[in-house]
Amino acid sequence: MATSPSITGGEKKHWWLRNKKIVDKYVKDARGLIATQEQSEIASALNLLDAALVLSPRFEVALELKARSLLYLRRFKDVADMLQDYIPSLKMVSDDSSSENSSQQLSRERVKLLSSSNNSSSDSPIRDPSFKCFSVSDLKKKVMAGLCKNCEKEGQWRYLVLGQACCHLGLMEDAMVLLQTGKRLAMAALRRESICWSDDSFSLSNFPITNDITTNVAPATPPRTEFESITQLLSHIKLLLRRKTAAIAALDAGLYSEAIRHFSKILDSRRGAPQGFLSECFMHRATAYRSAGRIAESIADCNRTLALDPTCIQALSTRAALLESIRCLPDCLHDLEHLKLLYNSILRDRKLPGPVWKRHNVQYREIPGKLCALTTRIQELKQRVASGETGNVDYYSLIGLRRGCSRSELERAHLLLCLRHKPDKSTNFVDRCEFSDDRDLDSVKDRAKMSALLLYRLLQKGYSSVMTTIMDEEAAERQRKKAAAAVAALQATAIQSQQRQTQEQQQPIKESELENKSTPQQKTSTASVFQGVFCRDLAAVGNLLSQAAFNRPIPMKYEALTC
Question: What is the pTM of this model?
């Protein structure tokens, strides 16, 4: 009876050693497959690593190789699911739910940080030779660095790999924090090793004496190429976040054109951006367009957001509100029914759509209230449709024109909208998008084409309706001008006839007055003025007068010379 425990202990020890050898063999084979850098070989290496992790779930080397293999195969969602406990935004959400407990635990951890040194100093007057001076900065780093609880055990590879995966998934803020933390931890490890290699603590035991130095000593930091790529990725992330921050600040300040300009720099840049980040920027720009009164552009950005993320609640509600504002009730009802189905699926699954680390602008506890309000809103819209409000669409607001606009203004606005929202160009934004899964490319293009085609048809209907209204107004204006011209002509003829009548009535009066004025003048002028008929040849008349010795001046009327 006394020998049975020793036998079982030996069996357990033998079993543990056998599993460890199997795990080491799996890891060694996986390293060889990963070194080929071929996708098929790396997929086979993943199977070996999964088998190794079944035997040893916390084996750090296997975890690192698996995470890097998933990152190489562009399976970013699997990396995020594997290391989701290290995502800062997810930790912040969990910390908000239990803020009191976390604050108490943090205070206890602060007490534990100082308890060991204080007790040792009070109990023994002779201090430990390895005692170091207390530093406030070191304490602050230990307290604030909640991302890494045990950096030496877990390693900085988690933050570097997860940071790259978060960047490709569109979690830019988390990616920046993780990559900066990974770089800081790697540099701190390098500094610690350099301190250990100083002259004060130098010993031959730290270095192997055999010729297997290159095989036994592993590099403490990743290769330089990885650091360079991480540095470039960090600079790109910071540029995108600066532009996004400036755009959101302009949007909050009411500078909508400025916000649109900043978001357009992100969305139209030559270097692509991740799918999740682009969907957020499209949604923010749609909000800016809506605030600026550009409804067609806002609907187009909502369409792009839903093409990239079909479960975006904000995009569906915004597009429904825009369609209701222009009284396009059937399309609005379609979006609201889709939103209702999405709410029902959330309540059925008891979680928001997508993985745990995906960002949403709503919380799960708000869904029941939103569903009740949405149901009443759908009933009201159905009543409006039944009453016959479907044909009264405000196409002026859709195109962005004032009522009573001219034909040239309509043609210019329609041309610009057609050039921007042509269905053939609806998938151009896909070329600047980095997808976390290439299998989503075809479905995104199909959704983008379908929604762009619906918007284009709505714009064509608006153009034809507004053009018909303008043509009717122009015809009515021409009729009014013709009627006004006819009335003006009648008035002119009446005025002319009146003037003629008055002139005819005034002519005999003027003639009688002239006769009365001319008779006394003739009487007075006969005594001094000679009146007669003269010949045209004045030279002959002058000769006759000189021959008759007529030298005195003769008064006469000069009017007679006009003949």
Answer: 0.70
